[in-house]
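User: Run a structure prediction on this.
Assistant: Running it now.
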Amino acid sequence: MAGRLGVQHGLGRRQGGQGLAEFEKSGRIQWATDLAEIPAKYGVKNVYGEVGTAFANSAVANPRFAAAFVGTLVRGLGSDHVLWGTDSLWYGSPQWQIEAMRRLEIPAEMQKKHGFAALGAADGPVKTAIFSRNSARLYGIDVKVAQGAITGDKVAAIKAEYAKLGGMRSNARYGYVHRVTA
């Protein structure tokens, strides 16, 4: 990671209705747009934006703002410089954020007005880059090697044995069951 700058959450100063109103009026999101403009302004390629809290705070409550936020980062930094983050420490299980991002698309009129590209399918190149490929590249992780290690762990072995035995669930209970006697 030497020579690279990763920027963590906090990229949207105003979020929700106030942030969307500001964006609709000016085409800018305070802090997020400033960050997204750094590569063009200064000719650098080592700036990364992580979606984290700003996405979590807006994804469900104001998805139009979430679309503007992600669109701003992708337009300015490139889809290869936007990183997925959930701040799960604060929000609990990140599955709802993952699903929100998988479903997110920038409205066509917003794409046209602000020069945003479509985000595409949940498993398409843009979202795959944001969810995993960018961080893997940034941290020097070979995804295929890492995935290979997963297929050889104990959970994978148990799953394979389960499938070999027919993969059918059993509701049988095993062990001691205390029975109350009169």
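The CA atoms of residues 92 and 151 lie 27 Å apart.
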